[in-house]
Design a protein that fits this description.
α1 packs across α2 and α1 crosses α4. The protein is of the alpha/beta class. 45% of the residues lie in helices and 20% in strands. The chain is rod-shaped, with a radius of gyration of 32 Å. It has three domains: 86 residues, Winged helix-like DNA-binding domain superfamily/Winged helix DNA-binding domain (Arc Repressor Mutant, subunit A), CATH 1.10.10; 108 residues, Periplasmic binding protein-like II (D-Maltodextrin-Binding Protein, domain 2, 3-Layer(aba) Sandwich), CATH 3.40.190.10; 100 residues, Periplasmic binding protein-like II (D-Maltodextrin-Binding Protein, domain 2, 3-Layer(aba) Sandwich). The strands form four sheets. The chain has a five-stranded mixed sheet, with helices on both faces. The protein has a three-stranded antiparallel sheet with strand order 10-7-11.
C-alpha cells in the first residue's frame, strides 16, 4: 500500500465521482481507477460500489477512509514540520571567532543581516583552544581567524585536515606590551629587538604553527622564552601582558578593540602580516555561508 493510493482513494471517497477526483488530483482517470483497483486487491474486497450511477463507499471503504484520513493528515503534518525545520536550518548560520570580531567581520555581519533579512546568524566568541575544536566537531559552520600569511598546510591547524580556507585580507601585526615596558613608547619594533623578551603564549592544545607565528619563532630562528602561565582567552592574555609578565604580537585590530590604558601597541617591523581568513570543513559549507563570504569579500575590498 502506497501513500499515493490512499490519496487517490480519499479523493474518490470525498467526491464520489471518478472524473472529478481525477481532475482534482491532476491525474488521468484511468490511472486513478487503476490505483484504486490495486488498493482493493490489497484489501481483498471492494471499497467502492460502482453498481449504480453514483459511486458510494462500501462498509470496508468507509473503514479505510476513516483510517486513511488520519494517516494522510499525519503525514502531511509531519512533512510540513520537516520542511519548516529544513527552511529554518537553511537560514541559520553559526559563526565563531576569537575575542572581538574585528572591523571587517563586524561590518560584514551588519551588511549581511540587511541583505538576507530572514537569516539567523549565531555568532559565538571562543577562547584560543575551543575555536579549533568547535570547527572540527561541527559546532560552528565558519571560523574567522587571523592566520600566518605564509601558512599553506592547513591540516596543522586542526590535525584532521579537510579544511577550506578563504583568505580575506592582510592585517599588520603589532607588539603588545605593558604601558610601563621600556619599549612601549617606540614607533616600531623589529623581531631582533624582541629576542630577549619573554612572551605570553597559549596552551599546547592550540596549533603549534599558530602559536609560533605570534612568537616570531621563524624570524628569531628559535622559540623565545615563554611565561609559565598560558593564556587560554583574550582577557587572560592581555591581563598577563598588562601585569608585565611578558609581551606578544597580535593583529593590529586588537589595539582598536582592546585599547586599555595600561597596554601599549607598537607596530611590528620586518615581519609578515597576519591574514584574516575564513575556515570551514571541506565539502561541508552551508549555502548561506557562501553568501556571507561574498559580503565579507566586498567589505574587505572596500576597506
Amino acid at each position: 500500500m502506497e501513500l499515493r493510493q490512499l490519496r487517490y482513494f480519499l479523493a474518490v471517497a470525498e467526491d464520489l465521482h471518478f472524473t472529478h477526483a481525477a481532475q482534482r488530483m491532476h491525474v488521468a482517470q484511468p490511472a486513478l481507477s487503476a490505483q484504486v483497483r490495486g488498493l482493493e486487491r490489497e484489501v481483498g474486497g471492494p471499497l467502492l460500489d460502482r453498481s449504480t450511477r453514483n459511486v458510494r463507499l462500501t462498509e470496508a471503504g468507509e473503514a479505510l477512509a476513516r483510517a486513511a484520513r488520519v494517516i494522510v493528515n499525519e503525514v502531511d503534518r509531519a512533512l510540513a514540520e520537516a520542511r519548516s525545520v529544513a527552511r529554518r536550518d537553511a537560514l541559520r548560520l553559526s559563526v565563531g571567532c576569537l575575542g572581538a570580531p574585528g572591523d571587517v567581520l563586524s561590518e560584514a555581519l551588519d551588511a549581511f543581516s540587511q541583505q538576507v533579512v530572514e537569516a539567523e546568524v549565531d555568532f559565538q566568541t571562543f577562547d584560543f583552544v575551543e575555536i579549533w575544536q568547535a570547527l572540527t566537531t561541527g559546532d560552528i559552520d565558519l571560523a574567522f581567524a587571523y592566520l600566518p600569511s605564509e601558512l599553506t598546510d592547513f591540516e596543522q591547524l586542526t590535525g584532521v585536515g579537510a579544511l577550506d580556507v578563504v583568505r580575506v585580507a592582510d592585517e599588520p601585526r603589532v607588539v603588545v606590551l605593558s604601558a610601563s615596558h621600556e619599549l612601549a613608547r617606540r614607533d616600531g619594533l623589529s623581531p631582533s629587538e624582541l629576542a630577549s623578551e619573554t612572551f605570553i603564549s597559549h596552551p599546547d592544545e592550540v596549533p603549534e604553527c599558530w602559536r609560533d607565528f605570534w612568537l616570531l619563532t621563524k624570524q628569531l630562528n628559535t622559540r623565545p622564552a615563554v611565561y609559565e602561565a598560558r593564556a587560554r582567552n583574550v582577557d587572560q592574555w592581555l591581563y598577563l601582558i598588562e601585569r608585565g609578565h611578558g609581551i606578544d604580537t597580535c593583529p593590529a585590530y586588537v589595539a582598536r578593540y582592546y585599547s586599555w590604558p595600561t597596554l601599549s601597541y607598537v607596530p611590528l617591523l620586518d615581519a609578515p602580516p597576519s591574514t584574516l581568513s575564513v575556515l570551514s570543513r571541506k565539502h561541508d559549507r552551508p549555502p548561506l555561508a557562501e553568501a556571507l563570504l561574498n559580503v565579507v569579500g566586498e567589505v574587505a575590498s572596500a576597506t
